[in-house]
Design the sequence.
């Protein structure tokens, strides 16, 4: 029974690190410029039809 808090702390730490990494990658993605302009998006949608 003495080992369970260590396992719980490890799982919570891994989850927290995953959240931090996800947050940083989301910030990096939102800082980037959009890759497709409006005209390119229209061309792609018209090709699909």
Sequence:
């Amino acid at each position: 029974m003495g080992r369970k808090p260590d396992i719980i702390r490890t799982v919570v730490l891994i989850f927290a690190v995953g959240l931090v990494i996800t947050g940083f990658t989301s910030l990096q993605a939102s800082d980037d410029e959009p890759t497709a302009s409006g005209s390119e998006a229209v061309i792609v949608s018209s090709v699909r039809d």
Q: What stands out?
A: The mean pLDDT is 75. The helical segments are 4-31, 38-48. The longest helix spans residues 4-31. The chain has two helices and no strands.
